[in-house]
């Protein structure tokens, strides 16, 4: 496989929906009154999952590109304080930020100046590829949870 084909596969993986619902489908058309609701027996609302996905993905991106990266506190800095969005615009803002960070991660994957197998200089021995795959894996896991929560709320096709 050529380097460009490999990079294209990694880039697509970050937003892939071939084997499951993609991010856009998972967040599309969810009624505002359901965004902060936790289904019975589950500890997360759609908002909590969306925000966790955003916060964790941004942390992975920051770790990857920021030589002055500061480690976040687990779990406080990775989950929202409330099951409900804090404002009427928070859902759409979070969705837009997730998309922007996916695009930034895809840009890293596509950038031929970045040796994906190289260790990140400040990255504790981790490689660029590892961080991109971590983001894709983490996102797929929580997108699946978001779909499940929507099904239990009766808000899935």
| Largest sheet data | none
Record field, number of beta strands: 0
Question: What name goes with the CATH superfamily?
Answer: dinb family like domain
| C-alpha Rg (nearest Å) | 16 Å
CATH architecture: Up-down Bundle
Please indicate the percent range of residues in DSSP E strands (runs of 2 or more): under 5%
**How many distinct domains?**
1
N/C terminus separation: 38 Å
Give helix % range. Answer: 40-55%
Commentary on this structure:
The chain is mainly alpha-helical. It has a single domain (3-152), classed as Up-down Bundle (Four Helix Bundle (Hemerythrin (Met), subunit A)), CATH 1.20.120. Helices cover 52% and strands 0% of the residues. It has 5 helices and no strands. Helix 1 packs antiparallel against helix 4. The chain starts with a helix and ends in a 5-residue tail after the last helix.
Describe the SSE topology.
Blueprint: H1 3-13, H2 23-27, H3 46-65, H4 90-110, H5 128-152
Helix pairs in contact: 1-4, 3-4, 3-5, 4-5
Give a quick precis of the structure.
The relative contact order is 0.21. The chain contains 5 helices and no strands.
């Amino acid at each position: 496989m050529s380097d460009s084909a490999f990079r294209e596969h990694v880039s697509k993986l970050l937003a892939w929906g071939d084997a499951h619902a993609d991010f856009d489908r998972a967040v599309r058309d969810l009624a505002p009154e359901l965004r902060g609701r936790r289904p019975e027996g589950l500890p997360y609302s759609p908002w909590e999952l969306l925000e966790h996905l955003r916060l964790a993905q941004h942390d992975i991106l920051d770790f990857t590109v920021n030589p002055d990266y500061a480690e976040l506190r687990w779990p406080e800095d990775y989950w929202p304080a409330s099951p409900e969005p804090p404002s009427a615009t928070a859902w759409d803002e979070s969705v837009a930020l997730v998309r922007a960070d996916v695009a930034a991660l895809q840009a890293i994957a596509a950038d031929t100046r970045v040796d994906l197998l190289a260790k990140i200089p400040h990255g504790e021995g981790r490689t660029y590829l590892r961080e991109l795959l971590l983001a894709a894996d983490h996102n797929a896991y929580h997108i699946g949870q978001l779909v499940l929560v929507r099904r239990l709320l009766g808000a899935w096709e």
